[in-house]
DUF7745 domain-containing protein (Gossypium lobatum), 110 residues
Amino acid sequence: MNITGLSEQWVAGRIKQKGDSKCIPWKNLKDLILAHPDTRKKIDVFALSIYGLVVFPKALGHVDEVVTDLFDRLDKGVTPVPAILVETFRSLNECRRAGRVDSLDVRSSS
C-alpha cells in the first residue's frame, strides 16, 4: 500500500491466495505502472515487480506479499540483507525439493 500510494481497499481487492502465500497478480501491477500519475511510484512498482517475478518467484505471474514488505522496509532505511538471505535459502530449498537443483557445491574446484 505504501509503495503504490493507493488505498488499502485497492490493495485488498487485488490480493490473491496462491498456495501458502498472498500475492498480487502481475497484471494489476502492470496496469498500475501504466496508469499511475507519479513517475517515482511507477518506478518503485516496476522495480518491485521485477524483483518479485524474477528474483523470488513464488507463484507464476504473481508478486508475493513478502516482497512488498521488503520493499516497504527499504524506504524506511532497514537493511534488506537478512530478508534476502532468508528468501534465497527458502527459494533454493524449494527448488531442491522440486528436484530442480541436484546439488549445490560452494567449494572451488581444483
About this structure: The beta strands are 16-18, 21-25, 62-64. Residues 81-98 form the longest helix (18 residues). The CA atoms of residues 39 and 79 lie 25 Å apart.
